[in-house]
Amino acid sequence: MSENLTMKAVGLYRYLPIEAADSLVDVVVPKPSPSGRDLLVEVKAVSVNPADAKVRQPKAAVEAEPRILGWDAAGIVAEAGPACTLFKPGDEVYYAGSIARPGANSEFHLVDERIVGPKPVTLDFAEAAALPLTSITAWEALVDRLRVSPLPGGNRDKTILIIGAAGGVGSMAVQLARYLGFTVIGTASRPESSAWVTELGAAHVINHYEEFVPQLAALGFSSVDYILCCNDTDLHWANMASAIAPQGGICAIVPSVQPVNLALLHRKSVTFAWELMFTRPAFETPDMAEQHKLLARLADWIDAGHLRTTLTRRLGPMNAASLKQAHALIESGRTIGKIALDAGHPQS
């Protein structure tokens, strides 16, 4: 196969602990071609999320062809499928992709244009790649699941507690909630993570390893109107049920291991919802283009200075060694913000 019909990528054949030598491997695979509404994107940067590590975690399955991970990318449109109307070759874009398709840890990547946004012009590719998955998750959790006002300043009389506020999703949720007018209370457990959450716009920070209600009371709050849990749902469930206001709303992004005891919410008539940003692209729902609109809106808000990238660490070049390092950092559970890899560039 000639060179122009292949591309470099990072994939896996077996699902192994990250310290295993072949947990992620450098591979050469066929270069795809776009059809329909697909874009072929020349990947310039990717970022790594807990979703990447969860997919890679040990299990018995063995892949006959390398499975390529990576669900956050920024790059340049190389080719556009015949049905594309939103983008053309040469456009700079960013997106999270679909969990049902190969990931973006490759030189080129196919993605449906309906879940792609125009890259913020004020950000470089790594800064942009840090944003899509977490921003889509945070926005959908707030607006689509909790049904808060999507207007800047539209929730000025409301409070929201964001659990795990220093992580990837939490870092974007804090900014979005602040911009939408909420009084934001974040949770963190270390001085450096607390400082980061405050820097992003949280009015208050409490410790998620301690009971919520006494800490909220010390700040002058008897309860909170909304809760977004970006951390262990099982661990925080009882605390959330105690802290939520009557007729409030809770949204969680981490699947529970134990059955969720919804009875704890009954007396307060509290609404509970799950959020997974892959739902729209994986099921190709009729409204999947909402993610394109969301990313375009986000780019405008970033370029206007209302929001910022959550990139805190760059690695590179994009190869198996760098991605293994990123996965190990994610699995440590102590990352703040996001980790991105610049394709072809050394770490800094």
From TrEMBL:
Keyword flag RNA-binding: yes
Keywords, ordered alphabetically: Cytoplasm, Metal-binding, NADP, Oxidoreductase, RNA-binding, Zinc
Main location (coarse class): cytoplasm
Database matches in Pfam families: ADH_N (PF08240), ADH_zinc_N_2 (PF13602)
Leader sequence residues: none
UniProt keyword annotation of Cytoplasm present: yes
SUPFAM superfamilies attached to this UniProt entry: GroES-like, NAD(P)-binding Rossmann-fold domains
PANTHER family assigned to the protein according to its UniProt record, in alphabetical order: QUINONE OXIDOREDUCTASE (PTHR44154:SF1)
Entry similarity comment: Belongs to the zinc-containing alcohol dehydrogenase family. Quinone oxidoreductase subfamily.
Subunit structure: Homotetramer.
Protein name: Zinc-type alcohol dehydrogenase-like protein
Organism: Paenibacillus chartarius
